[in-house]
Queue: 4 jobs
Job 1
Amino acid sequence: MAEFKQEQFIIQGKNTEKMESISRPALSFWQDAWRRLRKNRTAFIGLCILTLYVLMAIFAPMLSRYSYTAMDSDAMNQAPSALHWLGTDATGRDQWVRVWMGARVSLAIGLFTAVINMCVGAVIGGLCGYYGGKLDMIVMRIVDILYGIPSLIITILVMMVLGKGVAPLIVALCVVGWIGTCRFVRGEVYRLKEQEFVMAARVLGVPDFTIILRHIIPNIIGMLVTNLCMSIPGAIFQEAFLSYIGLGIAPPNCSWGVLAKEGIAYLRIYPHEIFWPAFFICTTMLALNLLGDGLRDALDPKLRGTE
Amino acid sequence: MAKYIIKRVIAAILTLLVLVTIVFFLVRLMPGEPFTNPKLTPDVAANLRKYYGFDKPLIVQYFQYMGNLLRGDFGYSMHYTNKTVNYIIGQTFPFSADLGIRALCLAISFGLILGILAARKRGTKIDFFCVMVAIIGTSMPDFIIGACLQYFFGIKWGLFPVAKYQGFQYTVLPACALSFYTLAHVSRIMRASMLEVTSQDYIKTARSKGLSEVRITAKHQIRNAIMPVMTILGPTVAAVLTGTFVIEAIFAIPGMGKYYVESVSNNDYSMTLGMTVFYGIFLVFCNLIVDILYGIADPRVRIGKR
């Protein structure tokens, strides 16, 4: 058996310095998520539709020559024409402007409700999940009880107490709306705080505040954003429903729900009056659902680097 | 099992107690009062207030109301004089319940079928169709679906009656409109959970035993995949029942929804309170049944709780 000596071997192609060097640019979590979101065609279409609607809601009423409250008794219930792009309603108000004014209200309600619910739910759920103990037990019993109460009943009653308007509507939708997020955040935090990296941080003497900020929040932020996107349609739906039963927005302000309600009254004679608000509600919902699905895939850390 | 059921029942009773309390005080906080008819002289209004017990302190009223509630008495309506709230609920609830049950059956059966079909034929045109139905269904508020159905099937093509509720063909459109959202939701969840189950070990075992595909789907996949659908049944019942408000208004069905909305604008305290509490009891009861069923179906639920 031949003897092999160390000197007989030459190391080929191993360079300890180059081995560890990073050959591709490092992507942060959000850059990576954005890259994957762009690849997902349906989600990207959803995002484009939403951006378009938001821009239109901001600028269309400013650029139109009509005011959303100006009535015109010579032009009632007109079909779409060059003068009135989407026609006029029963009092001769221009539907194009009213649709985009409604978009302002509907989108704002959806966004604010979802954001407030997310913040309140995340803070309460996070505290309960992280600190546990008596506080957790008491809050969770309360949450369990509130969860059993049909939310719509509470929303309707709060609306009746506070009166019509955008701010009361948001408050009413937030009274019980945070519970879902709270339960979900609590569960996640509860799971995360038992994991090794949190344990390691705690052993190293990192204060609680920093652990929450640096270790726990980054791990749930993706799910929170997805949750946020998915809960906006719910808020817009509820606004439309409340406006429909006459508890939503006070005239002359309008929202898509109010427009749909007005349109349904003339369904037999002027079907186009229900068509446009219905079209915008449905496409917005569709866009948000598609975007939410895309975000869920894009922000899931487990899927990172696959494909 | 008995312990689990007792726990759920206690939770349900607590929920009801909180619900009734919140609703009672919220209703009293509402601006305005019931006896504002200008025909009433101040004396008569004062007498009426006394008759309904509004002169007593709020807390006394509360315990009186709770006492009456325990006997199942919702009191007299303040707007429809001489009619009890119980009578009005008794007259109107059967219509709402009938519509709700029809819609629920439609939604669950078709939702499950679509979800199973989509998962079995994954990636084909059938799957695409089912997913499209699910997306469209969750993107449309029920009053818009109702209006569309009414316009096309009722007015344009004249296939079904436009309104009222007097026979089977009258129920078709409202039930469809009411069920669409839930149908879409159920099919979406069923599809996802079917696909998740497909990769489980026991399906591989079943397949390697040589069972036919139909048998695997029917006996192993569906049974396990149906669990997540059961969890949403409680909220689903709530969604369908509250959806009846709007559908009843569109199709002119003499159900509870109309009276509920009217009582709100009339400041008819006892009606609002009674109907809210009634809805609440009904929904909490539905949730309780779903919880217990879930506990029976899935042993992990009743034993495991960290």
Job 2
Amino acid sequence: MFRKAKHIREKYLEENMWPSIFCQACGIGTVLNCALRAIDKVKLDIDQTVFVSGIGCSSRLPGYIDADGLHTTHGRAITFATGIKLAKPELNVIVFTGDGDLAGIGGNHFIHAARRNIDMTVICVNNYNYGMTGAQLSPTTPLGGIATTSPYGNIESPFDLSALAIGAGAPYVAKWTTIYPHETMTAIKDGIEKKGFAFIEILAPCPEGYGRRNKLNQGKDNLLWFKKNSIGKSRYEKLSEEEKRACDKIVIGKLNDIDKPEFTAEWSKLVDKHFVE
Amino acid sequence: MKKRDVSTATDSKYRPARPFNREEFDRIRRILGGKVLFVQGDSAVSYGALLAGCRFFAGYPITPATETGEVLSQLLPRVGGVCIQMEDEIASVGAIIGASRAGTKAMTATSGPGFSLMQENIGYAAMTETPCVIVDVQRSGPSTGQPTEGAQGDIMQAKWGSHGDYELIALSPSTVQECLDLTIDAFNLSEKYSIPVILLTDGIIGHMREKVVLPEFDDVEIVWRKEPTRPKDEFQPFTDDGSQIPEVAIFGEGYHTYITGLTHSESGYPATDSQPDHHRLVKRLCDKIRNNRDKIIRVQRDYSDGGAGATGIVSYGVTSRSVNSAVKTLRQEGLKVDHLRIITNWPFPEKEVDELAGRVDRIIVPELNLGQVYHCVKEAAAGKAEIVPLWKTGGEMHVPRGIVELVKGRG
């Protein structure tokens, strides 16, 4: 089912960058693992693929891949990715981002790229806090969650990033957690294959940041929390209306997969109509 | 689910990263129609960009810069390029940097408030040595200020707007023709030195209509970045070959370059804990411009035959027009005036101002702000001449008479 780890390591990883900056039991490594396996499965031409990121722990991922990478400013990765894709539409563009980068400082770019439906795959590692700066409150911190800037518990309603993406018009949206690596990999694979804006939200542990402030001290505790508090979309849909209302679990799975006109394809038609020889 | 299919893109005329040559240049001239045009400064900037090979524009509407994007939204599809209205000015600079890294000449245009928003990503372009052009059609500020009025209030921001140590190039046109010509220069300089270049026009020139003559292919130089000369497995994106200007590998060509705004070594990978790496990097970012200042800086000297009693005037941008008129009047009245017009605001022409300060007793610096280039002139003259500011704000140009009276009244 999975290619050997050695194969993935030798084929895709940038050897000069190890050891990584990630803490023990951090979920970002799993996301990288799933993403590289998805890329391998799709047989993506790595020379024709650009990895783009903003600022934060998850945004360090392009540095660990032996490919073209653009590590940009905080929250703005999608805008740079838009420029790359539009300037050279034959490139595959994959964005790594986090909850703070994507939905905090970069929220506006996120919804507009989804709305425009530009062909790119946005992989968001949602770990409920700003990990790199030391576990501050993020736009996805759950109600009551303890962060270094919400020491008495979060009173703000968190964003549901996947619902936001669907609302903004993203044709492919999936949500998984790192305790389901195979499904995560499959979702990334589907997202890459989607001609359009694909958004994959991955709930991931941050044991050193959010975890230990919220009684999830070990990586394992984090993973089990995700398992306990999530429900597959197909199972959720079988619940009665009453059960659905009572269900406070996070719905995971493939949440949206529709076809709609993609920006570069439409721009291509527009150019061919107006081009002057 | 539809499988990935890129054939639509590659078979199409939609190819922003197309090669640039005489045929392409002549095609643009044909599309623009006629050799002599009567257009706004904002349009002239768009035309200059197309002639320079720009095939990507990203922008956000803002007075008095909007026309540049409007014109390019009409013209770029006709030449196989891209024009996209982004969600804000931050996104606009992000998009042009991405487009440039993917091998397309790219530009954005804005005014004061948008220029303020752009600063972080302009710093990113400087740090990552990405060629791109940013047009700032200056208007009165701070904040929303006078959206429809011209000003010269962004000179210092153009140089110091982002944090940290870096150099960039800023040019100030004073006619609509120069809006076109200096846009071509801006692209050439950005490609040559791998940096963001700022074109500092203003609301007056941006909206003013004047005659513009389109250049012939043989009249202009079109520069493209230095592409990698070393084999792919040996290539490092920030190696200094002695010129201090790195070779630029284009995304998708197999060089596997990692570009980051973090302090990086020659390999492009982060070296944030290294004092020598950081110092070497920012020193080179500054030196590649400082050491080439004689090649970069352009001024226009309109000097008298010298001797005692001459008054110097340093001007730039739209204000040069008022000064030209004042100089004519003053000379008719028998007064000696040395006019130094600055075309390259950054790097600042210190040597040229110093030379002027050696010729005259005092230098008048008229500007549409409350003192920006005045400080640079004062620093460059280093006490050799008295520096007299002539400030004006509120959206109106300097009246030539005001300059004449200042010269005569203190003469």
Job 3
Amino acid sequence: MDQSLKTTCLHDEHIALGAKMSPFAGFDMPIQYSGIIQEHNAVRNAAGMFDVSHMGEILVDGPDAEVFVNHVFTNDVRGLEPGSILYGMMCYPDGGTVDDLLVYKEFESGYLLVVNAANVEKDYDWLLEQAKDYKVEVFNDSESWGQIALQGPGAEDALVKAFGLEDLRDLEFYTFFDLEDEEGGRVIVSRTGYTGEDGFEIYASPDNIRDLWAVLLEDGVTPCGLGCRDTLRFEAGLPLYGDELSPEISPVMAGLSMFCKLDKPEFIGKDALAKQKAEGVQRKIVGIELKDNAIPRAGYPVELEDGTQVGTVTTGYHSITLDKSICFALVDSAYAALGTPLWVRIRKHVFPGEVIKKRFYKTNYKK
Amino acid sequence: MSRIIEGLLYSESHEWVKVEGDLAIIGVSDFAQAEMGDITYVDLPSEGDEVQAGEEFGALESVKASSELYSPVSGTVEAVNDELESAPEKVNEDAYGAWIIKVKMSDTSELDSLMNAAAYSEIAG
């Protein structure tokens, strides 16, 4: 392993399980244990757990916390109940995306922002810079937390059994509970995830996270790597920062306008996003289904029948659950309508397909 | 630890060759299939295609990535294992049983640059 890589609090567990490890966002992370297909199916049909301790946790508190978070965040936290969570983005003034994130409204005061591992430093710097004129404290607390994502139809039972707490069944989608460990340390359990299935994300101290991992493993929950994390989120139509969102790809281009509240008084990027929404964007993220089993990969050209390139694949797989070759692609908006025939160039050949809805898999969230 | 079979020849890009006269039967090594993980698609050439030593003739696709196949020898594709189109997982299950193409070699001296099992075990240990 490259010694410059960081490790999560579960690194020893991954090695002990024989995981195939690979660098991701500066961390040495497990890509797979038993195999991507088996792990993917475990989440769709039973329960799987992911080490997501590499994710970033940034705390925002102070008298101006609500106004400040609403200034940097595309969604609207006004009136958000303590214990509730919102998904949204941070944008640059031109509408490009800084990151996509979850905002947890704390019970006492302030907010917890959960951001992508690859963007922690960038996001923290961005927030500090924007915070200058606000009475807020912004603190990067990422080192204090380990995190496990427990996902799948069996996640609720596994969680209740691990914590010995029936009340956890009452947790609603996009809400969280604050729990305490025996030493008074904080444990957050939220009903959130990145797989299209019901599930939970548990934040706690590294020691507690190692204990929870061991308990879940003993209970038969399948350890899952980043390989199937990507296949699962992709099938569920969820974007990955860097692929479907970036400084060049705005939330409007990515089809995520519903998370941009243009009726807010102001937020960074609002004017640009409003203009994109009103006038239309040049390029959009679409879903494409191929009529062949060849696999479209990120970077492959999307073409018209005459060979004119009109876009590029951003993520693609032979879908494990749906058994067909599908992809997300960034294409000229003229070719973004459902049913539009498009071709993907895969090595020496072009394969026909058509634009379909991005939510490839029917999600099973607990509403 | 991956399996390496005596009597086959191996390329640096992890293809194996079984020689029968002027026919080269070509597949990928156990090491290669293990590195790739679950193989979900095999991109095959057509019978009659010309292949060149060291040049791409197809690809294996796992869930996560695609990996080009390079022909260890030059010649004409005599047969293609089209069973792999519907059952690509056979490459994972038995890398040395799941041959991919058979090539009628135009220059059998190209075999001299390939590795034997002992030499290959040095790079695919």
Job 4
Amino acid sequence: MANLRDHMGRPIVAVTGIGVVTSLGVGKTDNWAALTSGKSGIHPITRFPIDHLNTRISGMVDFLPSSSKGASPLTYELAETAAQEAVGEAGLNSGDFGGPLFLASPPVELDWHERFSLYNSDKDDAGAERLLRVARGLKELDIFETTQFGSIADRLADRFGTRGLPITLSTACASGATAIQLGVEAIRRGECDRALSIGADGSATAEALIRFSLLSALSTHNDIPEKASKPFSKDRDGFVLAEGSGALVLESLEAALARGAAVLGILRGCGEKADDFHRTRSKPDGSPAIAAVRAALADAGLGEDEIDYVNAHGTSTPENDKMEHLSLSTVFGERIGSMPISSNKSMIGHTLSAAGAVEAAFSLMTMREGVIPPTINYDNPDPAIVLDVVPNKKRNAEVRSVLSNSFGFGGQNTCLVMAREPV
Amino acid sequence: MSSPRDVVITGIGLVSSLGEGPEAHWQKLAQPGLQPMLEAARFAPYTIHPLPEIDWNLQIAKRGDQRQMETWQRLGTYAAGLALDDAGIKGNDDLCATMDMVVAAGGGERDEAVDAAILAASESRNDRDVLLNEKLTTELRPTLFLAQLSNLLAGNISIVHKVTGSSRTFMGEEGAGVAAVETAAARIRSGQSTHILVGGAFQTEHSDMLLGYELAGYLHRGPWKPVWQRQGADGGGVVSGSGGAFLVLEQREHAMSRGRKIYAELGPVVSGRARRSRGELGAEINALLAQAALPNGELLAMSGASGAHAATTAEKAALDANPAIAARGFSTLTGHMKEAQFPFAVALAALAVDRKAAYPVFDAATEKPFQGVPGTVLATAIGYHQFEGMALVNAA
């Protein structure tokens, strides 16, 4: 009989379904095959013109029916596709999930194409006045829905029959991990037996790209797109904007075993700590990231020596990778040089609101498959960052536990600890 | 029966067209026949409740920090500071560093001048996507993005007030405020947290914030009317207002151990998602009322009703069906504050039980007087478009 409670007497939380979509494809099979063969999904931008843009590459998901329809429809489709895979794998009724929904998704805004079309459907007045007048004459709710922050979750709640008021959240680049943390906490508090946690981001519009570009956050290595994301390399120059989604069905181990579900992994611990230093830069001493990692380990009841692999935040920005190295070396000490630490973002780019969920999905697969996906484009190591980044080629390894890091703009840091087995 | 893990309210930070702080709000709202502060010209045909004059320096000491924010983030950061001050937490490094935070947020303000210029140019250009790149790459202020990001209200609260235990931002109009309070309370009750800052802000004095309602025709037009009396008038019934509401929620034992004044105890917080297109809203409101387990006897209700025709009609019917309930539609006096609406309702409920007095009617034609001392007050937020929530607030 498995132990059903963790070291703090709380219900153990199992993962019984995993879904994922990235620029590498739809579903776990295609993504895993690409990821472990070191294939990059980064490609030239074709969704909109690239005139005047310094960055002309991305990891956009260009192959879904909603890919050209705007951020809200695409984010919904990404979330729905990943959730369908996860719920299907868990063997649950996909129209009557019966637990709460936690959705990490990007903030919404009226799409420019809608703005243009509303504005140019009339000739009187100008600016906002015209938009407002046209807006109140609309007969359909479609455009309105794309501007409501709760609408994507509302539709998903209808689609999957989740229970109660769905939560839509943002902790910037940590959002996906926060969605998982909220699910874990709800199960631990006994509020539910299962939860659906999704991170989805289909918001790579021209304006989003320009905004990040103006903050000097993006790589401008346009010439060979698949080489642009190079976490921990000396010549890294920013992240690559990307889209994707990850979904997990979380379930109390007790409920999962009772219904005979296959347990794919355990969500052992979550830790968070906010940074008060700066809006885009982290505290130079790395203390918030260090505290988040330590909080996750403590919550999981694991010591530093019990983590086999780190799925890095590894964005490929000069700042993040340096700070992540600093914080990991502080927590893991001497051992850091020999611990495998790889960044999925070297292949899929930074999927922003989805990243924490996508990378949790890959972390769980890493343990199940006994294969660590590489950090690709590691041709020119940063001498100041001495890490075993699993350079360029996958590695077979027995991985019993993973730490997955997510550090967000605005100082929101969330770390997850996952394990292969319940003990 | 009080328990050490009760959730109590030890800090309230409020800003609305009526002023700032719990005392100012109580003083104003306790005046029978108070008239709302309205701005009917600036966004005509829409009326709004504008922000009062605020000296941002009082809660955001550094000019550099103020410059990094637009009004929405400043407003939220300011209201959060008021709540922290009120709870005796501001400036206490240990308490701030261990304090959790859940912020209910929408988005920040876009640059209206840049947008208007792009739209104007779009009338004579067919290559609109190229136009967009051309204008946005050259005319956007680089740091404006940070002032627009939903999670950066929480980010600014961390930077300015040093609240760093944890930071989460919930999105989704009124429902975000409901879920924020509900989640914060659950964390305290389960022992996961001892003190949490929770709340939100809404800055309506920006065309995009009005557009967010008006794309579905939700805004009331023409002469202003109290929130319960807008059926049949031009438009959709919502009159919006700028404002913010933050609460410090604390484990009772934690609050007592540091000798803090307790305004009220936060009882059950319940939430739901009616499938309104299937006509479920009325039944959902009744189910939430049942789930909240209302006490016997006369009950004061601080209703966050928005004025939106369908939602407000359904809420009014449900509240009217219970003759013990005396509702106060506070949007009559503050306007609808979206994400801040539910925290605001809870704050007003806490003030009433603390002051041992009910508010007078805000609308003499439709609301009924409440006699006696309110020991428990109901707070509601029925979303203008989706999501519903309620809480009971009890005397400390």
